[in-house]
Amino acid sequence: MNALITAGPHWGAAGGFSPIFPIIWALLWAGLITLAVTGWRKGWWGPRRTPAPAGPAPAAAAPTASAERILAERYARGELTDDEYFEKMSVLRGGSS
After folding, report:
1. Closest CA to 23 of 13, 34, 12
2. pLDDT, the chain, mean
3. Residue 12 pLDDT more than 60?
4. Which of 1, 15, 89, 95 has the largest CB neighbor count within 10 A?
5. Where are the domains of the chain?
6. CA atoms within 13 A on the CB side of 14
7. pTM flag (> 0.70)
């Protein structure tokens, strides 16, 4: 029993400042985790979120693009002649027939 008392100070059971080190490490880890989660949620790092561009919506041009695509498909299948295809494309793009 005397050997345990006289063995000298060792971490944890000797008292003093040694019990505070695990508490400091736990607080440091909790702070790092909190910083990482906060930074991720606020967008400090990671993929950048760019705002939507101002101006007309892309859906406004979709009907014309869709019609042009349909005409191109019909022309590729042979349903339209060269003259019909180019005439209809001209009308879609705002020209006269």
Report:
1. 12
2. 76
3. no
4. 89
5. 2-42, 58-92
6. 9
7. no
Of 64, 68, 61, 60, residue with least CA distance to 89: 68
Q: Distance between CA 19 and CA 21 in Å, rounded? A: 6
Query: Residue 36: helix, strand or coil by DSSP?
Result: helix
Residue at token pair 């209809």: 88
Q: Is the pLDDT of residue 38 over 70?
A: yes
| Torsion angle defined by CA atoms of residues 90, 93, 94 and 95, in that order, rounded to the nearest 10 degrees | -20
What pLDDT, on the 0 to 100 scale, is given for residue 75?
92
Helices marked H in the chain — which ranges?
A: 2-6, 20-42, 62-77, 82-92
Distance CA 74, CA 87 (A): 14
